[in-house]
């Protein structure tokens, strides 16, 4: 495992002696310019890897080498937030500004989306004034309407069905830690929610196995599960669903959970806490995992989901994971709005 991590870090360090231009276009590079991202279901393995590579490249050049890359100079982004946020807002707002662009933060109190103005009209107005829209919404159908009516790319900042930008951050974090994604096993222990759905639409494409434990009645969406089973078969990975958290954790490299009570489900708290009894991730959960196991959580975290011993342990990658939300949203937007080609070597598969 040390060799894998060394290979990735050595690739980064070899760049330190080079002089960089802001970016260049290379023939044969992955072209995602103008694309929207509502779900990673619509992106192939090469495109996902390219986003991760661009993200790692920007992180190295800006954070570690102190370079200024005004790749988004003269561009603006409309950030629609129906739901409150810490990481999504900060990663997008600071990341877009760091690349020379202008972020515009919009809440239901700021605009008329779906109230005094239709989603159709809002999409057309924002398209005339900004270069891209990120929307964090309750209903996935809102995003689908925005895509239909807008003439600029739309990014899903979270919906009830998917949370793709979170998974990009998770993947970069695991790539950095393990040196390679292929062959890893991720165990999801918790609710069958939007974050899990996004794992299910992406992990198999990168050669990652997935083991899922959810209480009865909290399983992932049936259509998403069927698609995930198809992807697992297509890419030769394993997908297993359990109700026993320890069985799901057995032999896994990565233990992952999320909130059991999402925004809008507060009235279900008492019942949900009862139904998820026994699902808290502890060192006992990790005792059946692989020797190199790590822990992820997209935050905010509550103690009933994972205890302090795991959450603040050296095995926890939650804070690098949170930071990588910034670098991966930057990488994604650069892929969508520019012809930038990363200069970091390709990531080890």
UniProtKB/TrEMBL annotation:
Signal peptide start-end: none
Family matches, as Gene3D superfamilies: Aspartate/ornithine carbamoyltransferase
Domain Aspartate/ornithine carbamoyltransferase Asp/Orn-binding intervals: 182-335
PROSITE patterns associated with the record: CARBAMOYLTRANSFERASE
Pathway the protein acts in: Nitrogen metabolism; urea cycle; L-citrulline from L-ornithine and carbamoyl phosphate: step 1/1
Main location: mitochondrion
Localization: Mitochondrion matrix
Any one GO molecular function term: ornithine carbamoyltransferase activity
Keyword Amino-acid biosynthesis annotated: yes
Keyword field: Amino-acid biosynthesis, Arginine biosynthesis, Mitochondrion, Transferase, Transit peptide, Urea cycle
EC number, as in UniProt: 2.1.3.3
One GO CC term on file: mitochondrial matrix
UniProt xrefs under InterPro entries: Asp/Orn_carbamoyltranf_P-bd (IPR006132), Asp/Orn_carbamoylTrfase (IPR006130), Asp/Orn_carbamoylTrfase_sf (IPR036901), Asp_carbamoyltransf_Asp/Orn-bd (IPR006131), Orn/put_carbamltrans (IPR002292)
Residue ranges occupied by any Aspartate/ornithine carbamoyltransferase carbamoyl-P binding domain in the UniProt entry: 35-176
GO biological processes: citrulline biosynthetic process; L-arginine biosynthetic process via ornithine; urea cycle
Subunit annotation: Homotrimer.
NCBIfam families: orni_carb_tr, PRK00779.1
Family: Belongs to the aspartate/ornithine carbamoyltransferase superfamily. OTCase family.
Protein name stated in the entry: ornithine carbamoyltransferase
């Amino acid at each position: 495992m040390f060799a894998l991590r060394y290979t990735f870090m050595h690739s980064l360090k070899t760049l330190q002696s080079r002089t960089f231009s802001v970016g260049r276009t290379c023939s044969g590079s992955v072209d995602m310019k103008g694309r929207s991202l509502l779900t990673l279901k619509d992106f192939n393995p090469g495109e996902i890897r390219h986003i991760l590579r661009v993200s790692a490249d920007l992180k190295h050049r800006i954070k570690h080498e102190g370079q200024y890359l005004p790749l988004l100079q003269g561009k603006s982004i409309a950030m629609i937030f129906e739901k409150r946020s810490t990481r999504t807002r900060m990663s997008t707002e600071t990341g877009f500004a760091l690349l020379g662009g202008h972020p515009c933060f919009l809440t239901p109190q700021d605009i008329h989306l779906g109230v005094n103005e239709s989603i159709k009209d809002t999409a057309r107005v924002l398209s005339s004034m900004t270069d891209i829209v990120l929307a964090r919404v309750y209903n996935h159908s809102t995003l689908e309407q925005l895509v239909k009516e807008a003439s600029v790319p739309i990014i899903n900042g979270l919906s009830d069905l998917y949370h793709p930008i979170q998974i990009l951050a998770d993947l970069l974090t695991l790539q950095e830690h393990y040196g390679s994604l292929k062959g890893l096993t991720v165990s999801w222990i918790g609710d069958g929610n939007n974050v899990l759905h996004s794992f299910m639409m992406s992990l198999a494409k990168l050669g990652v196995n997935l083991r899922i434990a959810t209480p009865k009645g909290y399983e992932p969406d049936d259509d998403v599960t069927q698609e995930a089973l198809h992807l697992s078969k297509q890419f030769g990975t394993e997908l297993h669903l359990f109700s026993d958290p320890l069985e799901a954790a057995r032999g896994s490299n990565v233990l992952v959970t999320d909130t059991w009570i999402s925004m809008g489900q507060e009235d279900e708290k008492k019942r949900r806490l009862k139904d998820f009894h026994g699902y808290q991730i502890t060192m006992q959960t990790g005792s059946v995992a692989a020797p190199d196991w790590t822990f992820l959580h997209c935050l905010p975290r509550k103690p009933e989901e994972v205890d302090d011993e795991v959450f603040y342990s050296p095995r926890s990658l939650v804070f690098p994971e949170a930071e990588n939300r910034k670098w991966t949203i930057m990488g994604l937007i650069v892929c969508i709005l520019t012809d930038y080609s990363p200069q970091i070597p390709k990531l080890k598969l």
